[in-house]
Amino acid sequence: MPNVRIPTPLRKYTQGREEVTVAGDTVGSVLDGLEQSYPGIKERICDEAGKVRRFVNVFVGEDDIRFLDNLATAVKTSDEISIVPAIAGG
Amino acid sequence: MTGGRFLVLGAGGLGCPALLGLTAAGARELAVVDCDVVDATNLHRQVLYDLGDVGAPKVEAAARRLRERVPQLRVEPISVRLDERTLSSLLAAQPAGTVVLECSDQPDLKFLVHDGCRAHGLPLVIAGVQRWGGQAMAVRHGAGACFRCVFEEAPPAELAPSCAAVGVLGAAAGALGFMMAHLAVALAEGDDVAGTLVALDLRDLRPQQIRPRQRSGCAGCDPSAVPAPQRPLGPACSTSAGPACSR
């Protein structure tokens, strides 16, 4: 199953886990699986229309999904998905 | 490094280690901007200060400490609250070659600084830190991806938790502040770091380097794109305490 790196601000949903594995063959289905396992996390990543929020970026490996097929981007079991939100503090 | 001028916006958790790193690296001239005073509860990450500085303007305390370390260093303390007007004036007054370090804790301000640096042709390093980690990115407008290529807009206040609410590990601010200094020196020296975003989390000790692509239609760097709308500046990290610089 693809590995998902959870950013610090979202680890309260994953009981502090920095990485989780979630079944899915696209980024969107992985995010749906993430929500099933960790309720509440998806709305921090996607907006009401289901799109990735404008201050969050999702990468498959080193590739920005906006340059691929967005949430329809295919993922393999060996892939690592990184969720990278803009961090505000200073 | 044999000199260089750096404008450091915010003398808090990121600004303090960034200033130390720049000074140690041989910066010739620093300008430090903040409107806040030293608070005892922030000393774990604002490592330029001690209990004797509590209540003093941060920029004055920072300038004093830096001059003690390097007497020949030129340090300009600027106590001003940054908003659209003061920021524009400040950036317009910078000599060519100045590298800007955005160290504030205001999400909207970070983007305003980013866009202002584009307008004035200034390279910058922009960063954020919370809890165990954060991110830093070097930007030279016109050379590679900009911050808005990665993040199209600032998080809204309701989704940007307060630093006071979630905390900031002192070591995380230190690591990212020194990373900012490193990237700023590299920009000043012309090294190929522009467009690189480094994310760091001290909990899993796995730094992550991202070299985002320049995004067509990016409001931060695509001349054909509609400029990003400027929202009124919100409070620092969604605190109710009002605008701040670097708490």
TrEMBL record, chain A:
<dbReference type="InterPro" id="IPR012675">
    <property type="entry name" value="Beta-grasp_dom_sf"/>
</dbReference>
<dbReference type="InterPro" id="IPR016155">
    <property type="entry name" value="Mopterin_synth/thiamin_S_b"/>
</dbReference>
<dbReference type="InterPro" id="IPR003749">
    <property type="entry name" value="ThiS/MoaD-like"/>
</dbReference>
<dbReference type="Pfam" id="PF02597">
    <property type="entry name" value="ThiS"/>
</dbReference>
<dbReference type="InterPro" id="IPR052045">
    <property type="entry name" value="Sulfur_Carrier/Prot_Modifier"/>
</dbReference>
<protein>
    <submittedName>
        <fullName>MoaD/ThiS family protein</fullName>
    </submittedName>
</protein>
<dbReference type="InterPro" id="IPR054834">
    <property type="entry name" value="SAMP1_3"/>
</dbReference>
UniProtKB/TrEMBL annotation, chain B:
<keyword id="KW-0548">Nucleotidyltransferase</keyword>
<dbReference type="InterPro" id="IPR045886">
    <property type="entry name" value="ThiF/MoeB/HesA"/>
</dbReference>
<dbReference type="Pfam" id="PF00899">
    <property type="entry name" value="ThiF"/>
</dbReference>
<dbReference type="GO" id="GO:0016779">
    <property type="term" value="F:nucleotidyltransferase activity"/>
</dbReference>
<protein>
    <submittedName>
        <fullName>ThiF family adenylyltransferase</fullName>
    </submittedName>
</protein>
<dbReference type="InterPro" id="IPR000594">
    <property type="entry name" value="ThiF_NAD_FAD-bd"/>
</dbReference>
<feature type="domain" description="THIF-type NAD/FAD binding fold">
    <location>
        <begin position="5"/>
        <end position="216"/>
    </location>
</feature>
<dbReference type="InterPro" id="IPR035985">
    <property type="entry name" value="Ubiquitin-activating_enz"/>
</dbReference>
<keyword id="KW-0808">Transferase</keyword>
<feature type="region of interest" description="Disordered">
    <location>
        <begin position="213"/>
        <end position="247"/>
    </location>
</feature>
